[in-house]
Amino acid sequence: MEKVAEGVWQLRGDARKAMNIFFLEDGDGVVQFDAGTKPMTRKARAAAERLGGLKRIVLGHAHPDHRGTAPALGAPVYCHPDEVPYAENPDWRWDYLDLSQLPALSRLIYPFLMRRWDGGAVKIDGTLEEGDEVAGFEVVHFPGHAPGLIGLWRESDRLALVSDVVYLLDTTRRLGRPLPEGEASVPHPAWSWDHAQAKESVRKLAALEPRTVCTGHEKPLRGENLRETLERAAEKF
Questions:
Q1: Domains of the chain by range and CATH?
Q2: What is the pLDDT of residue 16?
Q3: Where would I find the beta strands (DSSP E) of the chain?
C-alpha cells in the first residue's frame, strides 16, 4: 500500500499488481473506492483496519475486477443508481460486453479471469449521484465504459480517482500490459456499454484539468499538462 496524496492510499494487488483499491481518510476511519478483485480481499481488509476501520465502500462501477472484495468486507456499499442492477446481478456477463472484438487469445483468457476476479453479487445499501460528497471529494458521473461509472474529484489538489474512465494498460493483450509512461487510452469498445459516451467521459475528465489521475489499474498518471494527454486518450480506439 502506498500513500498517493493527502489522505489517500492506493492498494495494488492481483495480476502484476495492476488492480487498484483506494482508501480515503474519513474521520477516524476510511472509505474504500473501488473493490478490486476477490483475491485482494484479505489485504484490503487488513489495510482498512490499519487505517482505522472501513466505513463504507464506493464502487466506481460493477465490473468483476472492481467489485471483487465488496461482498466479503462487511461494510455498506454505494454506487451510482444506473449501476445498481449490474452490481446486484450475480452474473458478470453483462449484456453490453462484446469480447468478440478482442484478439483470439484474449477472448479465451478473459472469461476465466473474470470468474477468478469476481466476488459475486453485491448488496447495494445506497446510491451516489453527480455532485454528492464522499470523504472530501465530489462525485462525478462518467458513463460509457459502464452506465453508472463514477469518479471522485478533489478540487484543492486537482486529484481525480476515476476507476476505468481511462486505461493505463492495453487490455487487448493477455492480462494487459502497461502503456508507455505518460500515455492513456479510452477503454476498448469490447468492454464498454456505450463507446462514444466513454470517449465523451474522457473529455469530461480532461476538462477538469487534473494534476493526478488515479485509475483502476496501474500507477497514477501525474503531470501539469494532463488535459492534452487525456484528450488524445479519447481518440485511441
A1: 2-233 (3.60.15.10)
A2: 85
A3: 2-5, 8-13, 19-26, 29-33, 54-58, 77-79, 126-127, 133-134, 137-141, 150-154, 159-163, 169-170, 177-178, 212-215, 221-222
